[in-house]
Every structure is written in C-alpha cells, then in structure tokens.
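ok trying again, last paste got cut off:
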Amino acid sequence: MNYFHRIIFLIIYFGTLILCQSQRTNIANHGLYSSINISCTNGNCRQRTAIIAGSILGSVVGIILCLVIIVVCWNHWKGRPLKTNLKFIHSTDRKHSQDDSYDNKNLFQSGIWSSRHIQYGIWHGFYRLTLTFDPQLLKVTGAGSDSSGVFTVDGIYSVKTKRISLIKTYHLEANKRSENFKYQMIIQLRWNCKTSQFEGKWYVRTKTYRGENKFELKFSNQQTRILPCKTV
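nice, full thing came through this time. structure:
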C-alpha cells in the first residue's frame, strides 16, 4: 500500500470518527438539556449550539487536512533536493561566505578523493574515488566504489561559489535478472574552509527508497596550504 492509499484511508477513517463523535455530542447535549431542565427551543439557542459544534468540527477537520498536507509534502520532497544542481552551484549565501585570499582553483584538483556519508544515523566511509575536473567546461567526472557498489560520477562545479554538484550512478548486479539494476545519488556540496573539505547532503529517490543526509568530500593528496577562514 503506497502513501497515497494510506492518506485516503486516514481521511475516511478520521472523517467517520468525526461524524460519529458529532452524533454522540448531539445526543449528549439533548440529554444534558433535559437533565438540567434548560430550554433550548428558540432559534438563537439552536443557532449558538450549531455555531459551536461547527467550529469544533471545522477545527478538527482543518487539523487533519494540515497533517495530510504535511505528509504529502514530506513524501514529495524526501530524497529530492530543493534546487537543481545547476542552480545550486551558482547560489550564494552570507552564511557560507568565506575567505577569497587564495586561489579557488586549487580546491578543484584532479586525483584521489575520499568521501563519507551518514545513512540510518551512522557514518559510512571513508571511501576512495577518482575525480577529474575540466577547468574549461567546469565539469567533473570520476568513478569509485563503496558499501553500496561500484559507481560512476558526473557533475558540475563553480570556482566562484566553491560548490560542487555530483550525480553518482550505481550499477548493481541483480540476481535472476537479465539486466543490471541502477540508481542515482544526487550530491550537493559547498566548501568549508574550517574543515578544508566540501560538505553538504546526498539525496536518493527510487521506487522503494527515499533518503537524504550529510555528505563530506575531501582531496586525499591535498598539498595546497589552506589559509584560515576570514569572518565576513
């Protein structure tokens, strides 16, 4: 049962529950009026009672609808970045503004890199991978392997904003299948001068799994001296 079916089931369930509760409230109100001998036969009294009951019912329905919308939005965006890779690498924000006193091109060196990421609350890695940066096209390619399998890397980067966007494509051998199964991981990273590495998040979205969490990428043979961060 997918989440759309679950949402429909919850709406029907809570709707039925609310109607039943409304009927019980009406019965209880009639019993209360009779027991304490309060007359509620005129139009104003009935109108006030209807307004109160409608307000309570509307509030409950509104809360349920808000919860449904939150669940739908959460399932829609989980495992999916808010920005495309192209928009991400060209984005800037004051929080991550850093010292430009050294050549940003030194940050994007072809060679052996290492990465690690969090999944299910546990750090996995470090894993080694090779990355090749094209300074003319501002593209990056590479390959490697980790606990999930063998993967290839394609991406883009910006020297100005010190950001990298990668797509890792895993090629997994599937038992008893004529074709291999593959899926992609989107990675969006920004340079952190305090830790001398790229940091950000990974995103995976397939038919059976949706996830996202922290990701770190660092040049293994880094020999360039990184100057201290400057407060902006």
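cool. Residues 155 and 166 are 4 Å apart (CA to CA). The longest strand covers residues 122-134.
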